[in-house]
Design a protein that fits this description.
The complex is a heterodimer. By secondary structure, chain A is an alpha/beta fold. The radius of gyration of chain A is 27 Å and the shape is globular. Chain A contains 21 helices and 24 strands. Chain B has one domain (about 15-265): 3-Layer(aba) Sandwich (Rossmann fold), CATH 3.40.50. The chains are: A alpha/beta, B alpha/beta. Chains A and B meet through strand 7, helix 7, helix 8, strand 9 and helix 9 of A and strand 2, helix 2, helix 4 and helix 10 of B.
Chain lengths: ~625, ~290
């Protein structure tokens, strides 16, 4: 990125407050017109372990968390030792100098910024958490920003507790002033702008986007990384008049969701791969009873429990294959957090109009990370299309009995919701005729069975017109096309820009609508004879298989990652060059020493921070 | 299109039931027609939801709105439906395998949750549609296709389970006593909360042990005895009674039933959710956006 930017890394144990320190910084900088993108790598523990939050700040909106940390805030010894060695000349490391010191010499040109936390904390509140506030104050100074922007965050965060505001402001100011006297500012200094950024996560936007798209019923079972969708709905339910329920399992979740939709209410549910697996059978029921439903699968690294707090794009096959038999479905993968905002609206409109289940594939990277968006981007009124929905008894035509599953040219049958007089019908998971009466109990009726399958499938012939087509960015005649889907849009976009700047001619085609595929548009773009490289966050290349099965298009190279961590621009830039150099598949791994562990099996290599361990400095206070 | 005075025939469908001749489910269905007519429930205001099994086919044999869902999952579907449109009378119908086997968790949770639906279980103590395998309510020792040496497992007691789970209306009927059944249905539908009616509905084809004569010899009506239906502990004693004498009738009715979920959820205190506006005004939208600024 040619723009001025700073990547801040905040490391600590779970419970140390990495997230709150990060939020304070993001909010402070957002209010000063500086955009950000955050990614939090954490473990599935409530206390302890290692949590590593990376936030990339720039006046130009960052589309991923970047390659390289410039400023480290280490909240414990482990974090300092892990990440200090990753810093490059000109970078800074802030830590509580009264409590710990680096176990090895820093890389040359890295500025150590030990903060005497006890001296800088307000007298009355010498809590461990004060180190976060002091460090955030110090970093604000090193970034070249005014203190006032930070002060305002404490005032709103602790609006109901004036004494807490005052203590935090005091601690942060002490950190700010200490830094100005004792440390050199960063070479890259961020300059405020007039842009109005708000901080959002994918989960937050999926929830808010759904509410603004008319979702009146939300039901879920807690499962990481989808739980924040439920929490957003729960905390807004009363105010927005949305019925929000947490229930016993994902089978109940999906059945309640379909039940509510069946009655004419827009209902949604979200889960992750394991919960989605439990929903499978019911998704097929929604298909055959032609009841709309919107189901979000926030993917995490599988299989089974897998790596619950890590990201992966590996439930594509599951979304395609969910449930027995054949029925129309739509699968959408939002391409960024901001895209998570509009996706529920698209999903609901298509689900209602075509009376089928729509599956949204988000992932842990988008759902639990955060990015800033301009407030006006969210201030939109979504069009609401309920399709051919009969909510009043003003039809059917004289003498004609109402046929819930009428065989129409479009395959779409006008849908009466229960409660409307004159439209009685049964919706059955058994095969049924146009009037809803079961065929499965009939001796045999191949003609009617085929007619009903064909009627449902016919809906898929027009649904593509209502779904977002793939987007091509970059030079149309590039020698190489980078093809991705879902959350990798931002990182591929940046890698493509860098490659072009370096003289490697690439463009970027990104797919959001996975089922059905826009085959014509894909073929028109991909059948020029250029090199095609598919980039996906899984091991087996699920999208590559899908594309080949649907279109016959075979990619020349594949860039994959399944180590639990998301792609960074540098990974894609390097891998594209490897593929141009002749490699067919590049499996990317995040190799920075900070990722490694001293796990007994030692398979990820020893972590060099431990090798040069020195005795810790005595703890003051 | 509402019918002025509803009669039993108004609920009879064009499609005749395809159960075996003599199946207990005919009596269960007939009683339901009568109860709905007596309560003057307009067919379009009645939603019957079932799972899968012989008895779950009932939904196709009554003139109302119906959903024939998947095995064991009728209760959560009905719960979502009731939450979405509280103006509908929602009845769930199914068998012992569907409700007490594969769907047991939902049954317990629905009672705890106290959603205002009426649950009719046609309990024949066997899997019928799959042609005669052991069920959770099959008696210990019972020989079936899958327990050729006799059932080694214990018998689930739905009434005791319902009491322990907070169900506010618990009754047991016998399809051989249809008039008695009609009264239980009517009380259950009018009960403000989850109501269970477990109905002995003999399978004449696959359960030769628990036949009409077997039940007739044993069942007695609680209404004929001095049973205190508001007394939880007395109800538990009756729920546990099994052997030569088996009680039918109202086992327990909570004398002070708590309001059901579909009335206490903050979004549902006004008109039914389906009739509420789903639009969020621009001012509220901007407030939501500013929460993150």
């Amino acid at each position: 990125m040619s723009e001025i930017e700073v990547v801040v890394g905040i490391g600590g144990a779970a419970g140390d407050g990495t997230a709150s320190a990060g939020n304070t910084l993001v909010l402070s900088l957002s209010r000063q017109g500086i955009a950000s993108y955050s990614y939090n790598a954490y473990q599935s523990v409530i206390r302890g372990g290692h949590s590593w939050l990376r936030i990339r700040f720039s006046p130009k909106k960052p589309l991923n968390h970047g390659d390289q940390v410039n400023a480290l805030i280490a909240l414990n010894q482990d974090s300092l030792d892990r990440h200090l060695q990753e810093l490059q000349p000109g970078c800074v490391a802030l830590y509580n100098g009264a409590k710990f010191a680096p176990s090895y010499d820093p890389p040359s040109g890295v500025q150590l910024c030990p903060l005497p936390i006890p001296d800088l904390s307000p007298d009355s509140i010498r809590l461990p958490v004060m180190q976060n506030t002091v460090a955030v104050g110090a970093l604000t100074q090193l970034l070249g920003l005014d203190f006032a922007g930070l002060e305002s965050v404490f005032e709103t965060t602790f609006a109901k507790k004036p004494d807490v505001v005052q203590k935090n402001v005091e601690a942060a100011r002490n950190g700010y002033e200490y830094a100005s006297k004792n440390f050199k500012p960063l070479n890259t200094r961020l300059t405020p702008t007039d842009q109005k950024w708000v901080q959002v996560s994918g989960n937050h936007l999926l929830a808010m986007g759904a509410a603004l798209a008319g979702c009146k019923f939300y039901v879920a079972y807690p499962m990481s990384p989808a739980t924040h969708v439920l929490e957003w709905f729960a905390s807004h339910a009363q105010r927005l008049g949305i019925c929000v329920r947490q229930v016993e399992d994902e089978i109940s979740v999906i059945m309640m969701c379909i039940g509510a939709n069946h009655m004419g209410v827009r209902g949604m549910c979200a889960t992750s791969g394991g919960g989605f697996a439990l929903m499978s059978e019911a998704i097929g029921m929604a298909g055959i009873i032609e009841t709309p439903a919107v189901i979000i699968n926030v993917m995490r690294a599988g299989p089974s429990t897998g790596v619950p707090t890590k990201t992966e794009q590996s439930d594509l096959n599951q979304a395609f294959g969910a449930s027995q038999g054949e029925f129309p479905r739509v699968v959408l993968a939002p391409s960024s957090m901001s895209d998570c905002f509009v996706t529920p609206s698209q999903a609901f409109n298509v689900a209602d109009r075509f009376q089928l289940p729509v599956i949204i594939l988000s992932d842990m990277l988008m759902s639990e990370g955060s990015e800033t968006v301009l407030a006006e981007v969210l201030d939109v009124e979504f069009p609401i299309d309920r399709g051919e929905l009969i909510t009043k008894a003003d039809g059917p035509p004289d003498g004609e009995p109402y046929l819930r599953y009428k065989d129409t040219p479009s395959g779409i049958s006008p849908r009466a919701i229960p409660g409307v007089p004159g439209h009685l019908h049964v919706s059955a998971s058994d095969e049924h005729d146009e009037d809803g009466v079961l065929l499965s109990d009939v001796y045999t009726d191949p003609i009617r069975r085929k007619k009903m399958v064909d009627k449902r499938v016919r809906k898929m012939s027009t649904v593509l017109d209502h779904l977002p087509a793939p987007v091509l960015e970059g030079p149309a005649d590039a020698e190489t096309t980078l093809l991705g889907w879902g959350s990798t849009w931002g990182v591929i976009k940046e890698a493509a820009e860098r490659l072009n700047a370096e003289g490697t001619s690439v463009n970027h085609l990104h797919v959001k609508t996975l089922i059905p595929l826009h085959i014509d548009e894909l073929a028109a773009t991909l059948n020029r004879g250029q090199r095609i490289i598919i980039i996906e966050n899984n091991q087996s290349g699920q999208f590559a298989y899908h594309l080949r099965a649907e279109s016959g298009i075979v990619a020349h190279g594949h860039i994959r990652k399944y180590d639990g961590e998301p792609f960074e621009p540098k990974h894609i830039v390097a891998s594209v060059k490897d593929i141009i150099g002749g490699q067919e598949i590049v499996d990317v791994i995040s190799t920075e020493p900070g990722w490694r562990t001293d796990h007994p099996t030692g398979t990820s290599g020893t972590w060099s921070g431990l090798k040069v361990k020195k005795p810790n400095v005595p703890v003051k206070n | 299109m509402a019918i002025a005075v509803l009669e039993k025939k108004d609920f009879k469908p064009e499609v005749p039931p395809d159960w075996c001749a003599g199946c207990g489910d005919f009596g269960v269905l007939n009683g339901l027609f009568q109860a709905c007519a007596d309560l003057q429930i307009q067919p379009h205001n009645l939603l019957v939801v079932s799972g899968i099994g012989c008895s779950s086919n009932l939904v196709g044999f009554i003139r109302s709105y119906g959903v024939h869902s998947i095995h064991g999952r009728a209760i959560p579907f009905a719960t979502g439906s009731k939450l979405a449109n509280g103006a509908m009378t929602v009845v769930v119908a199914g068998g012992d395998g569907d409700g007490y086997g594969i769907g047991l968790n939902h049954f317990i949770q629905a009672m705890r949750r106290n959603i205002n639906v009426t649950y009719i279980v046609m309990n024949n103590e066997i899997y019928g549609l799959t042609t005669g395998q052991v069920s959770p309510t099959s008696e210990t020792g019972m020989k079936t296709k899958t327990t050729p040496l006799g059932n080694l497992e214990g018998m689930l007691n739905p009434l005791a389970l319902a009491l322990a789970s907070g169900c506010g209306y618990i009754a047991r009927g016998f399809s051989g006593q249809p008039k008695h059944l009609v009264q239980l249905y009517k009380d259950a539908i009018q009960h403000p909360g989850f109501a269970l009616i477990d109905v002995f509905s003999p399978c004449v084809t696959y359960n030769k042990d628990n036949s009409y004569p077997w039940f007739r010899e044993r069942v007695y009506k609680l209404e004929d005895e001095d049973h205190e239906t508001s007394n939880f502990h007395a109800a538990m004693d009756k729920a546990l009674e099994w052997g030569d004498r088996i009680p039918i009738g109202l086992v327990y009715r909570n004398p002070a039933p708590p309001p059901p979920l579909d009335e206490t959820d903050p979004a549902l205190t006004g008109e039914p959710l389906v009739h509420q506006s789903y639009e969020i005004d621009a001012a509220t939208r901007r407030e939501l956006i500013q929460e993150s600024a």
